[in-house]
Design brief:
Number of helices: 8
Structural class: alpha/beta
InterPro entries: Cys_synth, Cys_Synth/Cystath_Beta-Synth, CysM, P-phosphate_BS, TrpB-like_PALP, TrpB-like_PALP_sf
Largest sheet: 6 strands, mixed
Number of strands: 9
Protein name: Cysteine synthase
Order of helices and strands: EEHEHEHEHHEHEEHHE
Strand order of the largest sheet: 1-2-9-6-7-8
Catalytic activity: O-acetyl-L-serine + hydrogen sulfide = L-cysteine + acetate
Cofactor: pyridoxal 5'-phosphate
Distance between the termini: 41 Å
CATH class of the largest domain: Alpha Beta
Binding site for pyridoxal 5'-phosphate: 72, 175-179, 256
Length: 295
């Protein structure tokens, strides 16, 4: 029995791939972040950013929060802001899936949609301009150290524990980069030999949750020295692997998880041996109105 939904954040399952990897000397594990109460890995930083801002006195019950999001962070912030009785406005591109928008509203958030052409960069500009006009506080997931610290204190230690300290490679999609920054920092402190692999889209590929940021929008929390290698995946690769995850492994996830899994499977086939962990960052049910699962 849990006293609060907040106690259910973290300690997500780590499950071994049964069919995707053909290399007998490599084990691939998926960390199922969709098992968090808000349905994604973003519950971790959302909770930490709000909790720490409250503890420092940066925000109060009277504060109006505003944040740009491509989806999962917004859902997590909406859920957690509601639990703390905080007012929040979430800004996202108008081509975001209806499931995401409706979920945020269900948690009590105000949702403002910006043009699809402007993408998440346009949403970030809108939120920042509104904050500068006054009356709003932005948590700024792209530049907030409490984002990556959430993974340093939870995701990294969980992976280290659940692999019995045998992890050799960690694979993560790169969006705000909080997951890979925090997990890398922890794992590198434990063993310098662990290899951290970031996943980005190929040129002209659109994969929700994975970005190759223009220089002026690169998250300030990102430190390139904490990523040993970057693998690129195409939109088609990500879609196909997302469908394979569901059909072959019973893991119903979103497209960024498929992108990370595609990179992880490719990595497994080139290694002589190893224990690889790939982040499955959310659930597939928030993509059902898109063409992701159309054959």
């Amino acid at each position: 029995m849990s006293k609060s939904v907040l106690n259910l954040i973290g300690n997500t399952p780590l499950v071994k791939a049964k069919h995707l990897v053909k290399n007998p000397n490599v084990e691939l594990y998926f960390k199922l972040e969709g098992q968090n109460p808000g349905g994604s890995v973003k519950d971790r930083p959302a909770y930490n950013m709000i909790k720490m801002a409250l503890e420092r006195g940066e925000i109060t019950k009277e504060t109006k929060l505003i944040e740009a999001t491509s989806g999962n962070t917004g859902i997590a912030l909406a859920m957690i802001a509601g639990l703390f009785n905080l007012d929040i406005e979430l800004v996202m591109p108008e081509n975001s899936t209806v499931e995401r928008v409706q979920t945020m509203r269900a948690y009590g958030a105000k949702v403002t949609l910006t043009s699809a052409e402007g993408g998440i960069e346009g949403s970030r500009d809108f939120a920042e301009n509104k904050m500068k006009e006054g009356g709003y506080f932005m948590l700024n997931q792209f530049g907030n150290n409490d984002n990556w610290r959430a993974h340093y204190h939870t995701t990294g230690p969980e992976i280290w524990r659940d692999t019995k300290q045998k992890i050799t490679h960690f694979v993560s999609s790169m969006g705000t980069t909080g997951t890979i920054m925090g997990t890398s920092t922890f794992l590198k402190e434990k063993t310098s030999s662990v290899e951290i692999i970031g996943v980005q889209p190929t040129e002209n590929s659109r994969i929700p949750g994975i970005r190759k940021w223009p220089k002026e929008y690169l998250p300030s929390i990102f430190d390139a020295k904490k990523v040993d290698r970057i693998l690129e995946v195409s939109e088609q690769e990500a879609k196909e692997m997302t469908r394979r995850l569901a059909k072959e492994e019973g893991i119903f996830a979103g497209m960024s998880s498929g992108g990370a899994a595609a990179a992880a499977v490719r990595l497994c086939e080139e290694l002589k041996e190893g224990v690889v962990v790939s982040i499955v960052c959310d659930r597939g049910d928030r993509y059902l109105s898109s063409d992701l699962f159309e054959q």
